[in-house]
Design brief:
Largest sheet: 4 strands, mixed
Strand content: 5-15%
Order of helices and strands: EEHHEHEHHEEHH
Number of strands: 6
Shape: elongated
Structural class: alpha+beta
């Protein structure tokens, strides 16, 4: 039994730590983010996390893995950047397919774009929340990042509307022109967030 944090034993007795919550608070005081928690080899029920935090440590084996929030955020931003490059490639292929009346295949390409774009937006918002970054204060080519995100949401609604109307000419125009600018802005946005983190 005992507590292991990042593969190192933690002397809970000397630290006066008696509950899972006290151990987690101690770990987080060192600017660490808990990314994995196992109690007796099992993941705790997150729906009952209040009870889990109150659970005594004595008699249980706790395994905790942590990450440094800034490094984790930079890793996520790097991955999002790679995914956005792939989405841009798929977007370009979708435009070409739409111009050649290949709407079915274009939709396959677009489905990958949608999930990547939504993932990028969610990742940026979660990183901002984690690191307490005010997105309204991040400048992206003269616009606040919040404005870039809002414009992006508007474009997604326009894309959805053109899909529902089966208006592939408008869809092609949005993808060819408006989202090209948005792709550039997303790249600039990721660079701006990196500069705030570093």
């Amino acid at each position: 039994m005992g507590v292991t944090v990042d593969h190192q034993p933690l002397a809970i007795e000397q630290l006066g730590l008696h509950t899972v919550g006290q151990v987690l608070s101690h770990v987080q005081r060192n600017n660490r983010l808990v990314v994995n928690l196992l109690i007796d080899g099992e993941e705790p029920d997150l729906d009952q996390f209040g009870l889990v935090r109150q659970s005594p440590v004595n008699g249980h084996a706790l395994f905790i893995e942590t990450a440094e929030p800034r490094k984790m955020a930079l890793d996520v931003l790097r991955e999002v950047g790679e995914q956005l490059k792939e989405a841009d490639r798929l977007r370009t292929e979708a435009v070409e397919l739409l111009r050649r009346n290949g709407a079915g295949k274009a939709m396959e390409k677009l489905s990958g774009c949608f999930s990547t774009w939504q993932n990028a937006q969610e990742s940026v918002l979660k990183i901002a929340q984690l690191l307490r970054i005010d997105l309204a204060k991040i400048d992206v080519a003269g616009k606040a990042l919040t404005e870039v995100i809002a414009n992006f949401a508007t474009q997604l609604r326009e894309i959805r509307a053109s899909l529902e109307d089966r208006d592939f000419v408008t869809l092609s125009d949005i993808l060819a022109y408006k989202t090209t600018e948005t792709s550039t802005q997303w790249g600039l946005a990721l660079d701006a967030i990196r500069s705030v983190i570093c």
